[in-house]
Amino acid sequence: MPPNPTAGRVAVWRHLKKIGAIYLQQSVCVFPANSAVRRDLAPILTRIREASGEFHLLPLRKLDPSEETKLIQQFQEQTANHYQEIIENCEVNFTKEIEFETFRKNFTYEEAEEIRAEFEKISDWFERVRRRDWFGAANMSQANEWLTRCEGMLEKFEAQVFEFQENQGTRLPTAATQRRRGQRVLPKSKLGSRKAS
Known about the structure:
By secondary structure, this protein is mainly alpha-helical. It contains six helices and two strands, in the order H-E-E-H-H-H-H-H. It has two domains: 6-50, no CATH class; 65-183.
């Protein structure tokens, strides 16, 4: 990529890392050779061309077994770190938020919607990491368990909100009412049916 503007180089680096790149040195990264990676790479390569940048796609064949093991370990470590970040996000941020809002009895529909949106964001994050977990990284099961736990906490909080609103004589907005008001209806997560692999 051209040295300027820097934003273009940063964007390419960020997108490559997002789809699971391992950097061996500056501007040299490695991916497993599979169709999913090639599909994810296509728009990034297009962006490089449009910015008058250059790239080379070089297949790695007949790697020394020790070198192949090193690369696999790097992929596993990178993905395990992502799973760990998800665990910490669930354990610290998400859990504390529900505990705090429960403590101050902030049982409003708006708060429940905000927390569910945050849960859906974490769930999507987990799915992105899981899709690029090519070599069975550590921490996946723990991250999945934490998501299931968070979903249970969320459903309990939503039930408290519903009960509080019912007792106050104010029903939660129905889906039809939300649509009339231009509000987004978030789907219920299916994480409860996911099995850790």
